[in-house]
Amino acid sequence: MSAPDTPPGTQHGTSPAVPPDAFDLPEVPGALPVGPLAAALARGPLVLDGGLSNQLVAQGCDLSDELWSARLLADDPAQIEAAHSAYVRAGAQVLITASYQATFEGFAKRGLGREETAALLRRSVELARRAAARAEREVWVAASVGPYGAMLADGSEYKGRYGLSVAELERFHRPRIEVLAGAGPDVLALETVPDMDEARALLRAVRGYGVPVWLSYSVEGEATRAGQPLAEAFAVAAGNDQVIAVGVNCCAPGDVDRAVEIAARVTGKPVVVYPNSGEGWDERARDWRGRATFDPARVAAWWAAGARIVGGCCRVGPERIAELAELLENQ
After folding, report:
1. Band of the pLDDT at 156, cuts 50, 70, 90?
2. What is the rounded CA–CA span in Å between residue 230 and residue 223?
3. Taking the model in full, what pTM does it have?
């Protein structure tokens, strides 16, 4: 994801000015050939990146806007590429794009038309691909498809149950998925999904585009954020060959242990996990509280249970991803 460093909707900013050359990027430098991600997962575990937003904040970026990190796709794309590059240097083998909160509806509120928004969605993939190209190893790019609630920017992505039908949610997601799929990512990351209805809508929306996907729920305990048992939630992807991995993200590290076991048992697919640091967001103080509980040492148990893509989400930075990479190398 990558889920927000501060929950969406808690801060508001002004519309970014789009410079005249906002949609022009130099050519991507040459890179090593990258094979199918599914084949790589069959060979062994891969290290995913960490939270994009916390790295952008560390670089001095202002994310106080409903568009969150997606704003920088227009306003300062070099910062996004730099953040991806920080994770590549840390050892990440899979990068998630800055498109989590990038939607036609969201950018329309800022005065951008559909063609401009489509260009920014494609740019999110290009920026990750440029950072990946500088690595001396295979690095895959996952195009982030965030939930409907991310567009609302009111925190409802952590609750689900928007009052929309599966068909309505499918209609919302399909245009963005069409653009992202056409940009040539290695996989579509259907991430931070709060309930089964939206998962079904997303899996319907990706049909026909020929791009593999992973499905990752936001969970609490052994249930989705909407309260459905994880066994039922993962079952919606069990027989779908387009889905190359299932798992959880943007959750407490302690919620991962059982989720990996359930996901692997129900689907028989590789598992993707990228929890938060474990700190809690204090809405009144608008700050993070508590102790970080993300411990790379526990990842060996996740691998043993079926995890094949492991990284971090909110508040997990390059230092922790470097520890994961070192741990994997020593396995």
Report:
1. confident
2. 5
3. 0.90
